[in-house]
From TrEMBL:
GO terms for molecular function: phosphorelay sensor kinase activity. SUPFAM superfamilies: ATPase domain of HSP90 chaperone/DNA topoisomerase II/histidine kinase (SSF55874), CheY-like (SSF52172). The modification 4-aspartylphosphate is found at residue 56. Pfam families: HATPase_c (PF02518), Response_reg (PF00072). Keywords: Kinase, Phosphoprotein, Transferase, Two-component regulatory system. It comes from Leptothoe spongobia TAU-MAC 1115. This is histidine kinase. PROSITE patterns: HIS_KIN, RESPONSE_REGULATORY.
Length: 433
């Protein structure tokens, strides 16, 4: 807006005054609108907003002060600068005008140059204020998007830190377990061989020298050597089984904590889900307060997909851990027998589907727990949102899961829940990246 193009509303009930003011302003290049009363001015302002208002004080109907007050109360109009035109130049009325929000006053009869100079300066001031406000709002917006970006990075950092701390720890554990497991596992076989040899020798010995000696045969009975010989195989078997279990855990740990590389890896999502469930096994087991949480796997055939497996496992872990947290909380207020008849369960289901016209893997994690209210549901993916007490939850679990699935994998993560029925988290991951 050029200042001289600006429209100025002149409000005065005296036609002679209106004429002089209008001519003065028009000759200086301003556009002028007129109103002959406060009421008319307010009405006109509903349709057209001028750049400045020149307002007479003494008018029939609502006077200039009241008109000014009404304008200043209106959020759409309060910014328009108002200059009073007044024959009353006593201090009281000028003060009152300023109190009501006027920016200036001009006494009648006015001198043309003074009127023009004041109008011009207030229009300029108004324009500068607008520019400043605009700049402030632009800066505020820039700052707020910088803040959002910063928070996003912070989350990534936290996640990265969590992952690498966990990754290192777990890699360490994997190593520590694998070495001794190697001695035990390897030596079981050797021991079995030695033992078989020893047995062959013993049998041969007993054939050659049947135990005639009473001391030897009573010792043989006392030690129940016959039973011992039959049981030894079972013992070896269960030791080997134990080693296999330890090897499974250690493998799960390694798959779960796959330290992610910069590039995506082609991997099997079921392996990731299984290793995550394996790691959570100890939390699913029966306790004094509740029977075991049942896990039902409903997997279908899936292609391997290119992904950051460690990060996805972290996302699965965060979702599954929430369900377990919730079950634990429910168990505190429910008796054991009730939980036995209605077991707490988590169903992990995978399907290959078309999602938003893209071939995707759908993973749903459904619990039959207490559900989430709509109000909470709308906030669960926000950073720091938690309903858990201090120390129990940081409110980052789902924000991290969301970031991993949506931003890192171009997928989507939704939640559906019904109070007292349960909750389903739906994950979609495109099969092509
Ligand atoms: N399966 C679920 N059933 C009921 N409420 C849930 C479930 N999953 C998440 N919530 C709710 O969502 C909130 C946010 O979960 P989120 O994992 O982001 O944070 P948190 O579990 O509170 O803390 P953190 O995971 O950082 O330790 C939880 O506090 C809980 O109220
Ligand atoms: Mg959580």
């Amino acid at each position: 807006m050029q200042i001289t193009d600006a429209e100025i509303l002149v409000v005065d009930d005296t036609p002679a005054n209106l004429k002089v003011v209008t001519e003065t302003l028009a000759s200086a290049g301003y556009r002028v609108a007129i109103a002959t009363s406060g009421e008319r001015a307010l009405k006109q302002l509903q349709n057209r907003v001028p750049a400045l208002i020149l307002l007479d004080i003494q008018m029939p109907g609502i006077n200039g002060f009241e008109t000014c007050k009404k304008i200043k109360e209106n959020p759409e109009l309060y910014r328009i600068p108002i200059i009073f035109l007044t024959a009353r130049s006593d201090t009281d009325s000028t003060l009152k005008g300023f109190e009501l929000g006027a920016v200036d006053y001009i006494s009648k009869p006015f001198k043309e140059p003074e009127l023009l100079a004041r109008v011009k300066i207030h229009l300029q001031l108004q324009q500068m204020t607008q520019t400043l406000e605009q700049q402030v709002s632009e800066r505020t917006q820039a700052l707020s998007s910088a803040l959002t970006e910063l928070q996003r990075y912070q989350l990534q950092l936290i996640q990265h830190e969590k992952m690498s701390a966990l990754g290192n720890l777990v890699a360490g554990i994997g190593h520590e377990i694998n070495n001794p497991l190697g001695f035990v596992d390897g030596n079981i076989l050797v021991l079995k061989e030695y033992f078989d040899d020893f047995l062959t020798y013993l049998r041969l010995y007993e054939q050659t020298y049947p135990p005639s000696n009473e001391v030897l045969s009573s010792k043989r009975r006392e030690l129940d050597i016959d039973y011992l010989l039959t049981d030894i195989d079972t013992i070896f078997e269960s030791m080997t089984k134990g080693c296999d279990l330890i090897r499974d855990v250690s493998k799960s740990i390694r798959i779960f904590s796959r330290t992610d590389t910069a590039a995506k890896l082609t991997s099997n999502l079921h392996e990731g889900l299984d290793s995550t469930l394996h790691i959570l096994k100890y939390r699913l087991k029966a306790k004094d307060s509740r029977p075991a949480i049942q896990v039902i796997r409903d997997y279908s055939e899936l292609p391997d997909i290119k992904c950051f497996p460690g990060q996805l496992n972290q996302a699965f872990m965060n979702i599954l851990a929430n369900a377990i947290d919730m079950f634990e909380e429910v168990a505190e207020n429910t008796d054991y027998a009730t939980l036995e008849t209605n077991p707490q369960s988590i169903i992990v289901r995978t399907r290959l589907v078309q999602h938003q016209e893209t071939e995707s893997v759908e993973i749903t994690i459904t619990d039959n727990g207490k559900g989430i209210s709509e109000d909470v549901c709308s906030q669960i993916f926000e950073r720091n949102f938690t309903t858990k007490s201090v120390g129990k939850g940081t409110g980052l679990g789902l924000a991290i899961a969301h970031q991993v699935i949506v931003e890192k994998h171009g997928g989507s993560l939704n939640v559906q829940s019904e109070l007292d029925q349960g909750t389903t988290f739906q994950i979609y991951l495109p099969t092509m990246d």
